[in-house]
Design a protein that fits this description.
Elements: E1 13-19, E2 25-29, E3 32-39, E4 45-51, H1 55-58, H2 62-65, E5 71-77, E6 80-93, E7 98-105, H3 107-110, E8 132-139, H4 140-152, E9 161-163, E10 172-178, H5 185-194, E11 201-207, E12 213-219, E13 231-234, E14 239-243, E15 246-247, E16 254-261, E17 266-272, E18 282-286, H6 293-307, E19 311-312, E20 315-318, E21 334-339, E22 348-360, E23 369-376
Helix pairs in contact: 4-5
Length: about 375
């Protein structure tokens, strides 16, 4: 792949607008200046622009079509759906007659919903004190799926996100979500994922057997990722550039996890790593609604694992049109990166996990860019 001129294949991007509630595709729009991202355990974002003034665009009635909170958006690349989400913002500027569209992945919808029982009746509820959602000794993957299911069981609250599988992790937890907290479903999912050995999750899109887009909740057991050999990117070939940041400003070898607090006491769990080779540093994380010592200890250990070494999150700029092509990999997948240059003059290869994908399709064929955020399996190669 390296050393010769490689002609870049032109990818075709199509942007479909859909009804958020039904999932039915209403139309497609010729968007440009597009950037979209996918993140593990997060929603990801989309930005794009639409030029108005052309009668061929006006006939699509873009103002009504892109109504925030009601419209969904799909991104297709060469026949493969690579992104989907909810349009939340639009901004029209009369001076240049352009409409700016902002969207976030379907997980963002669940940030606007609360963890309440499926049978919750707002007409008769006057006290949230006993309105709890309990999970006694549930597999954590089932908890994630059930949180999404009961959220969509409320009248008018179904956006047709369905579980991709029923596979379990084998990790059992006992959790309760008090209605009085009015915790968002999105926050509950992220907190579950942040537990020690918590399950990864991702809401992605694909074409179903009937040819229509399907919104899928994928839950890890506990990790998401491809089966088989890792993807490979080599600098000078399908890897065109990279940055290698290392940030030790937030490192700590002792973490205090602060839980529920009363007038004269506070539940706490402490996790410590004495093998870092660095002087003792400390930090704290707050979980004011957590009173279970076991859960708090899990949070403390998970937080310690995240800060016990300098944060190294390399960003890789890769070719979308060379193997592995965009759409054949996803966040959570494993990869091997091969580099030999002035920063690694002896040459190195290291194993990473993809945690973020950002795509800029470009307005011309040669402008398509893909940037991967990855997490090395060890701090340095």
């Amino acid at each position: 792949m390296a050393g010769g001129l490689v002609t870049r294949a032109q990818a075709r991007y199509t942007y479909y607008i859909a009804d958020l509630a039904t999932g039915a595709v209403a139309d497609e729009l010729p968007l440009y200046d597009v950037t979209f991202s996918t993140e593990l355990n997060e929603a990801g974002e989309f930005r794009g622009r639409l030029a108005l003034g052309d009668p061929r665009i006006t006939v699509h009635r873009p103002r009504e079509l892109t109504e925030p909170g009601r419209a969904g958006l799909y991104v297709e690349r060469d026949g493969v759906l690579v992104w989907g989400g909810v349009i939340w913002t639009v901004r029209y500027t009369s001076s240049d007659r352009h409409l700016e569209i902002g969207a976030a992945g379907f997980l963002s919808y669940f940030d606007h919903r609360r963890v309440l029982p499926a049978g919750f009746d707002p007409a008769t509820t006057t006290d949230l004190g006993g309105v709890d959602v309990p999970f006694p000794e549930w597999d954590q993957s089932d908890i994630a799926r059930e949180l999404v299911r009961i959220t969509q069981a409320h009248p008018g609250g179904d956006i047709r996100v369905r579980p991709a599988s029923s596979e379990r992790s084998g990790i059992v937890r006992t959790l309760t979500y008090p209605g009085s907290q009015l915790k968002s479903t999105g926050e509950a999912l992220r907190e579950l994922a942040s537990l020690e050995d918590g399950p990864d999750f991702l809401i992605d899109v694909a074409y179903g057997t009937d040819g229509h887009p399907v919104r899928r909740l994928r839950v890890g057991t506990p990790r998401l990722g491809q089966q088989g050999t890792p993807h490979v990117w080599e600098y000078g070939a399908n890897l065109t550039g990279y940055t290698w940041p290392a940030d030790g400003s937030s490192t700590a070898s002792r973490v205090f996890a602060l839980g529920a607090q009363s007038d004269d006491s506070q539940v706490v769990a402490v996790a410590e790593d004495r093998t870092t080779g660095r002087p003792l540093t400390e930090t704290e994380v707050s979980y004011v609604h957590v009173g279970d010592p076991a859960i708090l200890r899990s949070q403390a250990r998970s937080a310690l694992a995240a800060v016990s070494a300098p944060v190294v999150l390399p960003e890789l700029t890769v070719r979308a049109d060379l193997e592995p092509v965009l759409g054949s990999y996803q966040v959570g997948d494993d990869a091997t990166v091969v580099i030999k240059d002035v920063y690694f003059p002896e040459g190195t290869h290291f194993d990473v996990r993809i945690t973020g994908i950002q795509v800029t399709p470009g307005n011309d064929a040669d402008e398509e860019q893909v940037q991967l955020t990855v997490m090395p399996f060890r701090s340095t190669p």
